[in-house]
Design goal:
14 strands, eight-stranded mixed sheet, single chain
Length: 278
């Protein structure tokens, strides 16, 4: 039998990959004993890049006191409280001169003002961008508690550009007015709304849509699953939306079965779980 000469998928050409956003210290107040773990969307995205065989360029800032996110649950709803917010934002101007020009960018704000999203989009208008937009849809109250705003923020609307895929969670868009998601998607490349174990919705710029099924999993810790999904989807897009969605769902399933930002399995194992031939 002749050797299979069909092309093999490779995602190395997604790099150089630039990931920008703050790191955090995550505290899980409901656990006994209380658990603290490094966190932040940039960390989970970087773990995903490593699984895809890409060594990412991570742009972040560290305060003297760590940005502390406290996670707790009240009546089944996750609550966040933030201590020591960043004193200054991260911007494209902070990218070191010696770094190579990125081919893919992941922007990972956690609260308004921690990342100058527009500066990256203006500097690299032709580069594929994934915007993990959760941080643009939050506000911090005087007591440190964090709430989700009920409409697309001005910063989010300004970031909706033709080369940007926007990722949001279902609870972050639950109070939006009818049609708001479609209007946002019409300005971007696409909007993806993650829905936990129900999968994800894809809303394209022309108003069409599709679904991505979740991969079966035995959850231990769901923190960071949406960040892993977003990073895997953007990196997988070179194989098309459907393959990217299956890889993203499988990567997120791997993530929830570990505690904290542990290394993900290598891409070959994620692909098997996704039913994708590399």
């Amino acid at each position: 039998m002749p050797e299979d000469s069909s092309p093999r998928l490779s995602f190395a050409d997604a790099g150089p990959l630039l990931i920008a956003g703050p790191l955090t210290l995550d505290r899980f107040a409901d656990e006994t004993p209380v658990r603290e773990s490094p966190g932040g969307a940039v960390l989970f995205a970087a773990r995903t890049a490593e699984a895809f065989g890409i060594r990412p360029l991570v742009l972040t800032k560290v305060n003297r006191e760590p940005l502390l996110f406290e996670h707790s649950y009240v009546d089944g709803e996750r609550r966040l409280r933030l201590e020591h917010p960043p004193r200054s934002p991260i911007g494209a101007i902070d990218v070191p001169n010696g770094w190579p020009e990125p081919r893919t960018i992941l922007l990972c704000p956690l609260i308004p003002g921690d990342l100058e999203v527009a500066s990256f989009l203006d500097r690299w208008p032709g580069v594929r961008v994934g915007l993990l937009a959760q941080g643009l849809q939050r506000r911090r109250l005087d007591d440190g508690s964090v709430r989700v705003v009920g409409a697309p923020s001005p910063t989010l609307l300004g970031a909706a550009r033709a080369h940007v895929t926007i990722f949001l969670a279902a609870d972050e868009v639950a109070r939006w007015s009818p049609g708001a998601l479609a209007r946002l998607a019409s300005r971007a490349e696409r909007v993806i709304v993650t829905e936990g174990n129900a999968g994800a919705r894809v809303i394209n710029t022309d108003g069409s849509g599709s679904r991505i099924d979740a991969a079966p999993a035995q959850p231990i810790d769901t923190t960071g699953a949406g960040d892993v999904f977003a990073a895997a989807f953007i990196l997988g897009l070179r194989a098309g939306v459907m393959v990217a969605g299956r890889l993203a769902a499988a990567a997120a399933a791997c993530e929830v079965e570990t505690l904290g930002p542990a290394p993900l399995p290598p891409l070959a194992q994620i692909a098997v779980r996704a039913g994708v031939v590399l």
